[in-house]
Design goal:
mainly beta; 9-stranded antiparallel β-sheet
């Protein structure tokens, strides 16, 4: 464990060919490898975490439009943490230092409290557990309402998945294509949440059959398509959905999640002009609720005083 680094304390898990490093700021997944190959886009221990890469998102994932919502008969205004789009983005814990609750070789539990504040006057204790086993890395986020009032709640992770090097079209073009373009995506979602092009504000849930560029129910290469959308209508096996990302050799990574996450956000990490980070990984973010759920109420969890809610997901090598 290292102290004093910009991303916080470094908590290492290892076993079954996997190695994970959790950074205490944002309870962030800083690195995950299997037999030495990256499964997520990593970042350095002593750098400010790039955006939300690997962060735990709570008490809401994605965006709240205009940062404004009504709950419990009152209107609340959150800080606009995505000022370019005028939205409140990815909750209140991304830059919070989590404390240690349990540290083992294959399991860590971290905790933080969301204190009542402007825009979110509720007190929620959040536990984040990471556990390694032969089936990969499982993350569980548990919310405990330790306040006096019911509170709106949602959560999800923000890993950028990595399939590994490709021998496909990028190589043929002299490695000019971003890595994401050459990877194959399997996304078993029949519906997509259409958004406005400027602010990515939700519009309507529509069949992916009407948007073939976002239909990955049959695995296919991503190519140059732009994705920054939430998907639902997920096909599941024994209650579990799997999103899979592979390279030409069929090697890659998968993330799985159960019905407690009926949504998944997928983003191709588009950063035009920034060659070092443009489309270098595919963000795949299981979510307990869709963007702007604090306003729509869709799949929004209401935490009564004294109650708790847990959700989990797993990343594994394929």
């Amino acid at each position: 464990m290292t102290v004093g680094l910009r991303s916080g304390r470094q908590l290492r898990l290892a076993g079954h060919g996997y190695e994970a490093i959790i950074a205490s700021v944002g309870a962030s997944l800083r690195m995950l490898t299997f037999e030495g190959r990256d499964l997520v886009v990593p970042f350095d221990a002593d750098e400010v975490r790039p955006g939300y890469r690997g962060a735990t998102l709570a008490p809401w994932p994605n965006r709240i439009v205009d940062g404004r919502y009504r709950f419990g008969g009152a209107v609340h205004q959150l800080p606009l943490t995505e000022p370019g789009r005028g939205q409140a983005l990815h909750g209140l814990l991304a830059w919070v230092e989590f404390s240690d609750r349990l540290i083992l070789d294959d399991r860590v539990v971290l905790a933080a409290v969301i204190e009542p504040q402007s825009g979110y006057p509720f007190r929620i204790e959040v536990e984040v557990e990471y556990r390694l086993d032969a089936d990969g890395l499982r993350q569980t986020v548990t919310a405990h309402n330790i306040g006096a009032d019911a509170a709106p709640w949602g959560t999800g992770p923000h890993p950028y998945l990595v399939a590994g090097p490709s021998t496909g079209s990028g190589t043929q073009r002299g490695d000019s294509a971003p890595p994401v373009d050459d990877w194959t995506l399997l996304l078993p979602a029949s519906e997509v949440l259409a958004v406005t092009p400027d602010r990515l504000s939700p519009v309507a849930v529509e069949p992916v059959a009407e948007h073939p560029e976002w239909d990955f129910r049959a695995a296919r290469r991503i190519g140059d398509v732009f994705i920054d959308h939430a998907f639902t209508g997920l096909a599941r096996t024994d209650g579990v959905a799997e999103v899979r990302l592979t390279n030409d050799a069929g090697i890659g990574v998968a993330i799985t999640f159960d019905e407690r996450c009926p949504w998944v956000q997928v983003h191709t990490a588009d950063n035009p002009g920034l060659d070092g980070i443009h489309r270098i990984g595919l963000a795949v973010e299981p979510m307990t609720c869709p963007p702007d759920a604090f306003n729509s109420g869709t799949d929004l969890v209401t935490l009564a005083p004294g109650s708790e809610h847990a959700a989990n997901w797993r990343i594994r090598a394929v």
